[in-house]
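Input record (one chain):
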Amino acid sequence: MPYVTDGIESAMARAKAAAGDLDVLVHGAYTAQRALEAHVLDEVQIHQIPVLFGGGRRLFDALGTRTELEIVRVIDTPEATHIRYRVRR
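The corresponding structure, as predicted from the sequence alone:
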């Protein structure tokens, strides 16, 4: 598949069309931020590990608007806490 250069909305639309009935996954803070801002992200899943690196891109630092999330599922293990949220519209 070629690179999409005309925005996150177009990239997500093309990905959803290609996926059919399957889910489309978005990885990385920058892409997730753009998808949240464009209102094309339905869910967010976070895997929180008990280590603080002190660097990197903050996942929710650069959002321009308030986004409300609803907890769908939490799985807590000694290695990580996995939280799935639904994006409220």
